[in-house]
Amino acid sequence: MTLGAGTPAYAGDPSYGGDEGDAQPAPPSSGNGSGGNSGSGTIGAHIQVSQSRTGGSSSPTAKATSANANWKPPVCWYEPMYTPDEYEEFIKSSYKGAREPAASYAKERADEDYHKGDKGLWWQVQFRNDSYTDACPVTPANWEIWVPPAQPKADPNQLTPKTLSELAYNSTKLPTPPVVLSPAPERLKVNLGTRVKLDGDFDRVWTTASINYKGVQMAATTVATPVALEVDAGTTDADPGTCTYNLVKGDNGYTVDSKDAACNITYRRSSGSGTYPFKASITWKVTWTASADPDGPAQQPGLPDGLSTYEQNVTVKEIQAVNR
Hints:
elongated; eight-stranded antiparallel beta sheet; single chain; disordered N terminus
């Protein structure tokens, strides 16, 4: 069980170490547990996330997909949580009557006198969500760490602007490509080129993750800029099967019109009584700044490209002709 946001309790779950049935610290709750998926709200205990108006206001939005299938957002990290006096109260109330190994954990903190009289804060592990299905590098023996003002060497799991940028990336919602086909999707013709346009206001998107708690202030902003449109005919009976168009910045955002492009999909066979799954994907170049300013200096290492995709069924018919 967990007692509340940011509060470890005692659990007999062997996945957190020790023998089954032993009392142990359980993972602290990560706030509302929804910030990582919503594009706005709270992640962990005190990280606030907000997103700019999405780049295509009239288009449906979906959580950004990483172009790098191996990229994963942070599972857990340390956040500032308690002054020494608050930490003493927390340990004494939460671990009262605890069995091993939680009892030893509480005693160790008491032996340190909770760092009372010292300048600094106790930082506590927080989780991106409450599923706990992904491995967290922080062990139950170190749910909290003491962080002085002049920390000689930061813990590798301590919250940083880079961590915030990854949480912001994972929270970003991108508009689906507002693609318009000509002829209309239900009226495509065999051997007739298909014209593709992006319709409407379509611009960059940025998401800021920040923390301002007990004197600890930091922020990071991810900026997603649309750079290319790729369309997929949805069948091998098309020439070519896919086309990619670079987006250009216009007066009302980024756009493309394939009317005079060298790459235009042409269907070579009708869809018969069925349809083809035509797919359009936008590639977004993602950068990040170590502040709440989307126009601040881009930081390294960077973040993987993002993708937003829209799929629709198209009907392709033979062109009817009359011979005289």
